[in-house]
Structures are given as C-alpha cells and as structure tokens.
Write a structure and sequence with these properties.
Uridine Diphospho-n-acetylenolpyruvylglucosamine Reductase, domain 2, alpha+beta, homodimer, five-stranded antiparallel β-sheet
C-alpha cells in the first residue's frame, strides 16, 4: 500500500532506505506510507483541496521519544528528506497537519504526550508536544491541582503547537498569549543535537520553568513561527485558580464612543485593573448578516457604511451603539472594587450605562461549567465547532475556512478604519464576507482581527477566494496592518509584506536558517523561510 | 596625543585610515584617541584596575545618527577592527563603558539621545540608545505626560542599554523586567544593514510599539546580552500613572515561615493580586555586619548558621523573624481590597502580624517625592550611591564593586539554602562578604540575589577576589544556580557553567554570531560569545 509520492529530489531507493531506518527506530507501525494513512495528514480546511497545489505528505513517522526524534532527523539529513514536525496538527484554519512543502515527511509528535512535571508551588508545568489542552486539564483535575491552563477556542490542540504558532486564549494577559507564557524549551536541531534554552542550559538548574532568559542571547523566540528545530519539551506558566470571576458590561450610545472606550480599556489593562480578554461589539456591526431589514439595507447599500445612518438605526431601535464586557479575576472584594473603578472611568463617556454581571466564586460547580464560556475558566472545549456545523438555523454545514488575522492598532480609530477598508476591499473583490466586527483578540498592546474565509472545495471558487485574499493581504499591508499568522497557502505572501529594507527580516531569518539547518530539511517554506536550495521556488 | 594602542591584528596604517574615515563621517571632535579621553572609557569598577588584564579601548567614536553608525560599522568591517557599542556606559558593577576585549573601539552612542515618540493613548515610547532615565523622565514631565517609566536604581543609565543587559526596576511585573517591557527594535548589523524587528518589518506599520512578535521568528531576544548588532532604536511600554500607591507589611515569627511567605507571595503575584517588587528581609540575616553583639557572635561562630539560635535571638529581642512588604498600584478602593485579600491569605501563617502603610494618592507632591523610594514611583535617582560613599557612619568610601547575581528558585527553601551555601563558600574562600540576604530581585518567576563584591584596586587583593568569585560561580552552578548577568571579567566563566550538552547553547550562539557577523567585529567576547578567529583565546 506504498503511495507513489517521493520527497522532491530524493530517489526511490534513498527514500526506501530512510523509511527502513525509521521503521527500525520507531517500529514499523509508526511509519505511515499508505494513501489511506496519509489521507489523515491532509489539511481538511485546505484552500487547495484536491488541486495540484494542495500540500501533501510523502509519509509520516511518529516517534515516542526525544532519542527517536534525533534518529529520525539524522536519517532525514543523510538523505536530504524534508521533515514537517507537527504536535497534534489541530490548528484548523492555519494549515492543520499538512506540510508546507509537498513531499515532506510529517514528523508526528502525537505519541510524545507526557506531562513531565507540574509544580504547584511555582504554578508551572513541563510538557511534550503531544499533550493537548484536554490531556493537561485532565492531568491537573485528576491530581486535585488548583492550577488553570489558558486554553484556546477550541481546546483539542497541543500546548506546544499552539504556543509555537502564537495562539492565544481568554484569561489574564500574562497567560493568554501562549508563547509569552512559556518558560524553557528543549529543541532537537537539524543535526540531531539537543538544545535547551533559558536555564535549561545549566545542568541541574532548578529554574528552567521559572526564569525565561538564561544568560546571553534569548534563543526561544527564533523557534516560534519558524523551522529551525523540533521542539520536544516546553515549560508553561499556569494560572493559580483565583477566588472568583466577575464580568461587567459597559454600554455607550454613540458611534464615536469607540475611541474613548478603547482608550479607557487601554488604561485599565495597562494598570493591571482589568484581566480577561474583553469583548467589544456593536449590533450595528453584526458578525453575521443582519436579520433586521433596515440594518440589512444599510449594509447592502453601495459605498461605505454611513456612521450617521447606523447611529440613527441604533437610536430608532433603542439600542446602545457599543457594548463592551470586561472580565476580572480575584478575591470577591477585589473584583468588585476593580469593576467600581472601571465604571468610574467609563462614566466619563456621556450616556454610558452599566450592567453588573454575576460574581462567580471558584471553583465552578458542574452545573456552572455547563453554562459558562469554558475558555474564560481555563476549561478546554470543542463547543466552538457549533459555528458552521449543521443545525436548525444552519442547514448547510460549512466546508471549513481559513483565517485572515491582521494586527491593527489598539485604538478606536483603527477599529473603525479597519472595518471600513476591509469591508470595501471585500466588496470590490467579491469576497464572501460582508460584515466585520471589532477585535476579538487583544494580545500584546494591539488588536488582532480574526476573520473566517470559507472554503468551498470547488476549485474555481477556491481559486478566486485565494486570489482575493492575497489582494486583501496587500491592501491591509498598505494600511500598515500585517497578519500575525496565516495558513501555509499564504505564508510567502504575508512574509512578502514584511519587506522593510529589501526584506532584511527574511534575509536574516534565512541566514539563521542556513546556520542552524544548512541542509534545509526542517519544514521548508514554513512562515516564508526557505532553505538555500529552494529559495528560487518561493511562492 | 594619539595613544599607542592598536586593535589586535590591525596595522597602524590601517587603523589610521579607519580613524580618518570615521573623522570624515562624524567629525574629528567625536573620534577620541588621546589617553586623556580614553581614560574616560575605563571601567571605574574594574576588578583588573591597573593590571595587564584590564580591558582597554584603542579609541572611541561617537556618532550622531543611524547613518553614521552604518558608516562606522562598514569601515570597521573593512579593516577587521572590533567595535564595542555602549549606550551611556553606566552599568557600573557590570563593566561600565570599557570593552570586553582590549583594543576594541568603543562605539559611544551617547549623542543619539532623542526621544523619537511618546504615544499617550497606547502608553509607549520609541527612543535612541543615549536616552537616559533622567532624560526620559524630564521629557515626559515637560510635556505633562501621565506616563511613568520603570527605572532601575540608580537611574542615570540608558533605557536601551539597561534593557539589553537585562536590568530591572521596581514597579509592576509587566514593566520592571526592562527587556520584556520593550516592543520593537532597530538594529544596525555588522555589515551596515538595518533590521527592524516585530512590526517594524512592515513598512508603514502603526503597531511597531504595540505588537512585539511580528510574523515569523521573533528575533529580538537574540540581541539581548549578545554581540550580534548595534541597537539604534527601541520601543518601550510605559506605565500609565495609577490613581494611588499602597504598601503593606507582613511580619511572621518563625524561621521556617519563609516557605509559606514565598508560596503566598507567588499565589498573589501569579493571580495579579500584588504589583510592586516585594521586599523580604529578616533582622536575623542582616545586609550589613550586625551591630548587636549577640547576633554578631552567632554570625561570627564557625560553621553554618543555626536556625534555632537565630530563632532564639529573634524571640529574645521581641522581633518578627521575617518582614515582607507588598506594594500595590491602583484606585484607592482597589489597593485597599488587594491588601485585605493579601492579609487574609498571610493570616494562614500562625502569628502573622500586619502593618498598614499609608495610602498615597498620585501624582506625588514635591514634598512626597523627597521622602519616598523614588524608583517605586518611576522617578530616576542617584540616591543609591549613598551606599559606599563617605559619610559619618562610613568614613572610608569604597573603591567600587562588581555584582554577583545568581538566579535561585522562588521558594522559601531556596532562599535559606542559597544563604547557607553562599555564606559557607564565602567563608572558605575568605570572600569579604559575611552575610547574605533574601532576594532583592523577583523577575520572571525566580528570585535573583544581587551581592556586591568590593574591589580594592590593590592588585594582589583583587586577584584573590577574582579567583574566589570564579570559585563561587562554580559552587553555585553545582547547586543549579546560574548568574543572570555578570561583569566582563567573568563572562566566559559564567558562560562555561551553561554547559548542557557540551555547551550547545554557546555553540548555537556562535553559529548565529558567524551568520550575522562573520568578520567578528562586534563586541568580541561579550557574554562569552567569541568570533571564530578568537575562540581559541576564550578565557
């Protein structure tokens, strides 16, 4: 049941030798070559589904230990076979488990799923790449731990994989940026050597998961969104369960209030006075096509949206223009005092109104777990998949999507401007997205918009979609908005936008690539970084 | 007045040519070659003062612009002249303004002292390397800004230099780790090319000081504590002035309480429920030789300190064993609620007592500024220098010192163990430090001990001191404690301790060095990273 695919430039004989060596190393059942098995390594949300450009694996191999990873990497290096490491391969919408470069062998780390350490005193853990958020949650619960993980939505992915792709979650700023919440890495380099970063470089150090920076250059960052090594262990900081959760809602009447809302939120977050990921939305800018005929007419009319018309609609309906929910964690009196302080600041916006949420003492009861938005409480879930699934209101389930996620300034003006520009561009390009929404991500001190681009699996339609998204990437770049992450189909296009000084960033990335992986065997093309022998083929 | 020094391996003729080219670029008055001028580039706190090993500059050159930095670097590359960039060169105790490698030309960035941007809405700034904390403070005050900087103690250094050396301050965790509080860098590479990190790679990006990570590998970390480039701009996040400051003190009766004190502090800091750098101390472990004769006798007796004897002394004196001060920033009701919540947790320690500090509304009045510990309020100061200066109680001013700063776990057990081991080792080595203290630094999730090693400028004594400190570095490494930073005299010794997998960290550091600075002209030997042609000379 051997499939016919070969890694580019590798002879059938050499590939057979490599496969044999890997089988000897990990056991024959953990080396996948049949079409049936390799179908599982396709990207279910690929915008190239079934087309010649679809990125397909030549084989997959699943080691159980760091030593096996070293062996696999050395064999690959000997024969020049590209490897594509994945943790759980669940980042649907950003590439899934398929390689960036067709003919790569997927290095599937799913069997390396051990929780190596949990330190309750210092609230940290050390895990392998195959540990999913569900695994970790179960591990903590079974041991009666009082530590929370910060989980993305959905939660079936890998802690390590999500962090390396720069995913994020919902709790406090120190935890919800998953790469920033890591502390210490172990990496198998392209030549099979093991590097430990931070205090891991000091034999016997007791602070590998406590002090991030070690001594000398901090190397961790270069292993994020790159292809310089295979991360085999990573430490993370965990959130000790707070005493209570509280959410409060601010409503303001006018379109232009967004400027002051974001400014006030910035002050609060920058002074540690608000904790969770906020939600900010307007019924005048709905996430799905509006059901109200008047609003639908406003959104369907040619030209830009008219803020005054939206304002008039909101007033006719007796709605607030903006609704912003803030989330707080801490002792009951602390979260109450924080909300009072927040209200005092937002009260500077004329007409602001407030709705107190419920104070929820922690831990949650099983009944509470059933009704809350689980990620805000560090609980993994797959509930996100109800979007696009078959249901009474949505009889035609979607075929999947990929994400378009530009970074915009954390200002009210940028929220409005990005909505205007993206909406106009989408219309010009006939992109199947009508309406945009205020930020769903606030990491670092910027907002990240996250928009789903629906794939159809109809080649002609998907081809048009891809071309339109490439154009949208360019238009956003012209406005100073770059993507923080993208699917393999667009990795080169996005990297092209980061072009300051004749693409010096990519030139430096590739000098480091050549220094650490001179044969270019690890994830060629990932995030637009190609090994020397493939740079001509940059797409 | 030309001094006789030449960069190693560079002919007098080539050096003269380089000096002429630099003079043409920056103006003759900004190229220093006289002994008189170069005396100012000696490390006033050098542990090699006046000895052959003292690290001395061959010249210094002070550009005023990025273009001039590019020109200087290109000329240096042409002739193989080592350059040693400094910002303000004020990190006394960690090397000052002297190069790591004798014969280097100091690239003094003091004239590049422009505050390029302050964003009040997003609480950030963009500065050049010559901007000191005093400059920045003045800039903000003159413009009526409500933003604070986080300053180290003392505050005459450079924001950029301090961050690149991984210095720290006193306010909230998100600000007091100065490298972590940066957002975006501009770097002149060894070949004169300009790299901008993060969103700086996207031309026209509006989020260079808002989103740290950009797209692809995060390169920023490799320019910390290294020698891969000349940082010419750096963004920082600033702390919007909070409404009030509050400090509360916890006192507990028993030696072993430190375990629970640190655990409680960890919980609070990890749940965002305490903000400032805590102070933790015990009068039984004083920072200076004890004046009380009984305590002096206990500390002077042979062998390890006896916790039971210290406990008995504390009880006879009616003192608490431990005193821990916590600091909070926020709205008055918030800081009060936080302190109440902290007290409720610390009350689990039997016999814990509490002293409420004063609630200080902000901004401070001039009278208040005169009496507070300024760095806790973001105010730069040189008051730290009263230590070791001539005074009534200290008639013999010190000659200076260098710092010994190991990272230990953030646990009570580690505080006690590190005190015991370092004290015993110091005695064995006849190191002029008698007594140690609980942590003065809490960054990341570890403690950093910071101990001054007094230099004498008497070669025989300083030689013994250096040997003893090298031994202390080794003993600490055997216990798993590595330094986070060190003076040039010890950079190789400390790097030697980070030896996991046959020094793979240094081997990777040097592969990156070769990739980015193949001629090895930038700061040879800094943090133990040497260019290829000097690796044999590693000390």
């Amino acid at each position: 049941m051997q499939n016919g695919r070969l890694p580019p430039g590798v002879s059938a004989r050499d590939f057979a030798r490599a496969l044999a060596a890997w089988k000897a190393s990990v056991g024959a059942r953990w080396v996948y070559t049949s079409d049936e098995d390799l179908d599982l390594y396709r990207d279910a949300y690929s915008p190239f589904w079934g087309e010649p450009e679809e990125r397909l694996a030549a084989a997959a191999v699943a080691p159980d230990s760091v030593e096996q990873v070293q062996q696999i990497v050395r064999v690959a290096g000997e024969h020049g076979i590209p490897l594509y490491p994945i943790s759980t391969g669940r980042n649907l919408g950003y590439g899934g488990c398929a390689p960036t470069y067709t003919g790569s062998v997927v290095l599937d780390l799913k069997r390396m799923n051990r929780v190596l350490e949990v330190d309750e005193y210092n609230a940290s853990c050390l895990v392998e790449p195959g540990v999913s958020y569900f695994d970790m949650y179960r591990h903590l619960k079974e041991r009666g731990s009082k530590l929370w993980i910060d989980v993305p939505d959905p939660g079936w992915g890998s802690l390590i994989g999500n962090a390396l792709d720069h995913g994020g979650g919902y709790t406090a700023p120190a935890y919800r940026n998953h790469f920033e919440a890591h502390c210490g890495m172990e990496i198998v380099l392209a030549d099979g050597e093991i590097l430990r970063t931070g205090m891991g470089a000091l034999p016997g150090a007791k602070t590998w998961q406590q002090y991030k920076f070690g001594y000398g250059p901090s190397l961790d960052g270069i292993f994020k969104q790159s292809n310089y090594g295979v991360v085999t262990k990573m430490g993370f900081w965990l959130f000790p369960e707070p005493e209570a959760y509280f959410s409060g809602t601010v409503m303001t009447p006018r379109h232009d209030d967004i400027v002051k809302i974001v400014e006030t939120f910035n002050y609060l977050e920058n002074t540690m006075a608000v904790h969770g990921l906020p939600s900010m939305y307007s019924q005048a800018y709905p996430m799905t096509p509006p059901t109200d005929p008047e609003l639908l007419a406003l959104h369907s009319a040619p030209g830009d949206l008219d803020p005054a018309a939206l304002q008039a609609w909101v007033e006719r309906k007796g709605l607030p223009f903006w609704t912003c929910s803030l989330k707080f964690y801490g002792a009951p009196n602390v979260v109450r005092a924080l909300w009072d302080a927040a209200k005092a600041r937002f009260a500077a916006i004329p007409g602001a109104q407030f709705r107190d949420g419920e104070l929820i003492p922690l831990p949650l009861s099983p009944e509470q777990i059933a009704r809350v938005h689980k990620p805000e409480f560090g609980i993994p879930s797959l509930e996100m998949f109800y979007i696009g699934a078959r249901s009474e209101t949505s009889p035609n389930p979607s075929n999947g999507h990929f994400w378009f996620s530009p970074i915009i300034p954390r200002t009210g003006a940028a929220v409005i401007e990005a909505n205007r520009v993206i909406r106009r561009t989408a219309r010009e390009l006939d992109l199947p997205i009508l309406i945009f929404s205020p930020p769903v991500g606030s990491w670092s001190r910027a907002f990240i918009l996250v928009l789903a681009m629906p794939i159809t699996r109809v080649p002609e339609t998907d081809r048009r979609l891809r071309a339109a998204v490439r154009q949208l990437i360019k238009v956003c770049a012209e406005h100073g908005w770059g993507e923080y992450r993208t699917a393999p189909a667009f990795m080169d296009t996005v990297m092209d936008m980061y072009s300051y000084n004749d693409h010096i960033q990519r030139r430096v990335d590739e000098r480091i690539k050549d220094a650490l992986d001179p044969k270019g065997i690890l994830s060629p093309g990932r995030y637009g970084i190609w090994p020397q022998h493939l740079r001509q083929g940059r797409r």
